[in-house]
Amino acid sequence: xxxxxxxxxxxxxxxxxxxxxxxxxxxxxxxxxxxxxxxxxxxxxxxxxxxxxxxxxxxxxxxxxxxxxxxxxxxxxxxxxxxxxxxxxxxxxxxxxxxxxxxxxxxxxxxxxxxxxxxxxxxxxxxxxxxxxxxxxxxxxxxxxxxxxxxxxxxxxxxxxx
Length: 162
Fold this sequence. Notes:
Blueprint: H1 2-7, H2 11-57, H3 68-83, E1 91-101, E2 109-122, H4 129-132, E3 141-151
Antiparallel strand pairs: 1-2, 2-3
Helix pairs in contact: 2-3
């Protein structure tokens, strides 16, 4: 009986060494997806807030077109305040698109501001970057893009006279 036990010593250790890396990798993937989901929420909220800021500061005169430069300046100043030293790695693209004209006031154009935020997420756990990271994978960064469209707030003229 003693001889039989001796041949099986270490079996549990070998099985643990075979299963443990797979189990740890699964746990790391679950935690990494939670990390990515958290940063996706941040990117979507930042995109929404930047579009809101752009919609509010884009135009201040009735019938005037929205000014992209004014929007970009205000958004970049807010981005610097919100994200601090990480603001340089976050890119924000601002675009204005005309969607139509008001039937009552022909000079009033309907415009939307479209803000796209590209937010880099540094993957935190080992082994997950070979599947989840963007190219080059060795950097361990996944870029999240969040886009928001919002109508530009404009004041109306009291009449359509020129």
